[in-house]
Amino acid sequence: MSASNGQSVQAMIEASKNKKGKVLLEKTMPKLLLLTALISVLTTFGIVFTLIFETYEFFTRIPFMEFITGTQWLPFAGDAKYGILPLILGTLKITAIAVVVAVPLGLAAAIYLSEYASDSARRIIKPVLEVLAGIPTIVYGFFALTFVTPVLQMVMPDVKIFNALSPGIVVGIMILPMITSLSEDAMTSVPKSIREGALGLGATKFEVAIRVVLPAALSGIVASIVLAISRAIGETMIVSLAGGSTPTFDANITGSIQTMTAYIVQVSTGDAGYGTTIYYSIYAVGFTLFVFTLIMNLLAQYISKRFREEY
Amino acid sequence: MRYIEEESVMRNMGKRLTKNKLWKYLFMLAVGIALASLVVLLFRIITQGTEYLTWDFLTSFASRFPEQAGVKAALIGSLWLMLVVAPVSMTLGIGTAIYLEEYAKKNKLNDFIRMNISNLAGVPSIVFGLLGLTIFVRMLDLGKSVLAAGLTMSLLILPVIIVASQEAIRAVPNEQREASFGMGATKWQTIVRVVLPAAIPGILTGSILALSRAIGETAPLVVIGIPVILQFLPDGLLSSFTVLPMQIFDWAKRPQEEFMFVASAGIIVLMVLLIIMNSIAIFIRNKFQKRY
Fold it and tell me: Where in the cell is it found (chain B) (predicted)?
């Protein structure tokens, strides 16, 4: 009885092993899934090759040196000039203002959440900050143009309708939740025992936060700031709506400027035809933008890996 | 013998304690400023937009006249966009996550795939627009269609979906897989019948949040060249179309003051759409998420 039973189980196993469909499925699924994973690699290659090919076309018409050292960006003028420095400067102005707004506020908020706030306060504040992170950038852009700029004009009369200050501040508000949440993560992962050691030696909460927790979490904090800078560099809609379209090469932040992203938008919404130098110029500018953000992202990864304190 | 000179302790500590308290309030102030900016932003948009937010606004096409302008084409267009983005990005994203978590061995190729995904997540959205313009609109000749825009957006949010799905799959404890193998299940059977059912709530939550990012995204569609003033609804994947953020962008750029209010009304519609999607995500997370 038991023998025949054992045989039938054996037979069942054999039968199930021999099901062709199943074997096929087991073998093909990993390959199919690998294919989907390779799409993301293909996307990167697509981006890089697109940028390289179209930018190459651009450089057959405009000398490379003129592009990277020129201080005039006048693609629509009769005597067109393609020096990218004004666009880079515009981008850096926005980024610098955003950093000035977001880093102190974001870090202070992170310290408050990780060191001072009660659990219940944190449970309310964190999701609300996440809402701030989920608001579409076009909404921020509209806010900058219709609220922040008029308010600034009331305080400082020489602020123009389009300026660097207003979108810079709003980009700062946009990247603030990113700095807060990533820095807070880094600070909460500092073990409690280290804090208690310092408190036991008579340090105040503030001293613990600044001299113990902040240094221990520094790699995560710096990485979060670098990532936020990368976001600010690539930000498009806020600067397109509120920053203006005048590529200038000076230190003025109250007048109209143009960033790399805003230039791409300006050309895309205009009527520059396919194959014109202006058309290819958006790829050259896009390529420059891509290089900037790639360096920032690699830097952030390097910092968080290289300088991480392990506990 | 006294070990502690209370006077000098008080002298030293008094200052430090005041400093401690002062900074606590400064840190609180920072949180307050962040929250206040959110309140001001929402308040401004709601007070500006509600007047124009009528039933006619939802059911009319775009117009040169602010009082006749509506979001019908844009709202339906955003839903059409989701029709492409949701299946494409979720298939690719979940597939990649399963591969990386369940199959991928530690080798150069897989390390490269992982590194590539984290870098792709940092590429500005406008650069994805340039990719879409070259590859989908021109090379594959899809035109400025729902399909071209949808594929571009899918690639944009792909890294987010991959990472969220990876986390959900990783949260399924290994005991569950081992139990399934122990019962004689094959690898694929284990994935389909044990891992995925346990991970689906997390995957869905992450995917819906990623999709809500795609609904609010403007820059890549501007680069692709999606039109803004449309008097018809899309009738297929190759039809031209417009979306809510594009429509808002167009209104916000117009000089007439009335269009500011129209743009605000459009923003309210977009935000309500986002709130609905986020609520669904939170509902799924709270209702179905299992903790092991």
Answer: Cell membrane
